[in-house]
């Protein structure tokens, strides 16, 4: 249907976006790859030299590397489990008839709109602080010893904060998916004497599978880049107890000015994210055809 | 009987849902309440929920420190600027992909999405150095450019999914009725495209407002938006719970109100149309 003229116009309209995105991706990524093979420290200008895979060797043998990798995986998996399980439970709950459903939904979704630095500060100081925090006051009220969350369980505390921020997202997506659940099938199953647990396992869960996959993949992309929550609360510590890959690369490049080492770490993070991205792209690509 | 039972069920569900919702909302509510307390009351070891002397002094103090308003303004400029710039670039692109799709349109869309998958930390160093060399470090212009590029794939995708729903036949019908190209765009297409563009604008302002990786790494003082300004409260000398709460409340209130209006678009935009 499209004429030659409209096709040319279409291509012209497309060019700026494509060109800019191409430059945005290829230039910095190319530079990162290039830097990762250089000895390059901002504090020692003029000493740049090609070193082959030395930065990668340093990065992988850095005593902080393995903790950072396991912390990253723990953070991502921990938040995913909490948000997906909690999200399904909340979606099922919100789907029931109730009074004031609109307000309940507004309250549940709210944490998603809180900027990460605010939620990290609020949790760190007003809730989790071992002296002045609300949790400490509650613990004292119950005659218990207040917990020093960020000293005793830094990673778990960060997981709690991040999960609080992402639970609304998972809930909202899963709740949206619930809307397209086949009610007649549900009722038919109920007539046939299927209990609520059977219906949940055999009807609700399969129906939500696709939305759950989308939640997992999209959250993983964002969770691999969690930054402000760590910067504000623990700064990666104590020691390396809450250092993730993203935070490690930040420390190496922005605090120690070791551009070469930081770049090698950046490339490792890119490879890790790509593994996730491939799965996500396949899912969305399939949807595009449908 | 059945009616009674379902009413009982509804009451239980309502109580449970409200309980969970209030628990999830509690940290925000607590911040809001604390912002009206005195500093002494805020760290009282027997915290009071509602029965304290309500005061507005924290808001006054925070607003008198002119820097708060400056950072608020930075957030407004950066989030709106990057979104509008993104729309200017993305509307023609999404338009042509939706109405004049070629053989490679799908590949192009997937490729755009793939740029979004690139973790920010992988390009942190080059972007930092490029911004430094261009004199854009700690400037609003620099952040507007970076956030435009960060959110451009989402903007294109959202617009594409909206534009694709505009039926192409309507254009042909208008043409049959003798509409010229300009009146076609002005009277037929624009009214149908405005809701989609508005939703895209809303979601991206929210995303840009809360973006915390680039805003923290590329600003120091002058161009710092609220994300970076609030993060600076984490230093021990800045610890005043009531004032922190007042600053936080003002930082999140506008975007939360916008967010509540954009729940549906949020699902669509953030799942790239995979869940509707």
UniProtKB/TrEMBL annotation, chain A:
Subcellular location, principal: membrane
Entry membrane topology: Multi-pass membrane protein
Would you tell me the Gene Ontology cellular component terms? Answer: plasma membrane
Asked if the Swiss-Prot or TrEMBL record annotates the protein with the keyword Cell membrane, the reply is yes
InterPro entries associated with the record? ABC_transporter_permease (IPR051393), MetI-like (IPR000515), MetI-like_sf (IPR035906)
Classification via PROSITE patterns: ABC_TM1
Q: Where is the ABC transmembrane type-1 domain?
A: 69-280
Instruction: Please give the superkingdom of this protein's source.
Output: Bacteria
| Biological process per Gene Ontology, one example term | transmembrane transport
Q: Which residues cross the membrane?
A: 12-37, 73-94, 106-123, 155-177, 208-228, 259-281
Concerning its family, UniProt says: Belongs to the binding-protein-dependent transport system permease family.
What name is this protein filed under?
Sugar ABC transporter permease
UniProtKB/TrEMBL annotation, chain B:
Q: What is its main location?
A: membrane
Q: Which InterPro entries match?
A: BP-dep_ABC_trans_perm, MetI-like, MetI-like_sf
Q: Name one Pfam family in it.
A: BPD_transp_1
Q: List, alphabetically, the SUPFAM superfamilies matched.
A: MetI-like
Superkingdom is Bacteria
**TM annotation in the entry:** 12-33, 72-96, 108-131, 143-163, 184-207, 213-233, 240-261
Q: From the UniProt annotation, give the residues forming the signal peptide.
A: none
A GO CC term assigned to this protein in UniProt: plasma membrane
CDD domains found in the cross-reference section: TM_PBP2
Regarding the membrane, this protein is recorded as:
Multi-pass membrane protein
GO BP annotations of the record are: transmembrane transport
What Gene3D superfamilies does the record point to? Answer: MetI-like
- Subcellular localization, per the record? Cell membrane
Q: Which residues form the ABC transmembrane type-1 domain?
A: 72-262
User: What keywords tag this UniProt record?
Assistant: Cell membrane, Membrane, Transmembrane, Transmembrane helix, Transport
For the keyword tRNA processing, the answer is no
Record-stated family: Belongs to the binding-protein-dependent transport system permease family.
Task: Return the protein name.
Answer: Mannitol ABC transporter permease
- The species this protein belongs to is Ancylobacter dichloromethanicus
> According to the entry, what is the taxonomic lineage of the organism?
Bacteria, Pseudomonadati, Pseudomonadota, Alphaproteobacteria, Hyphomicrobiales
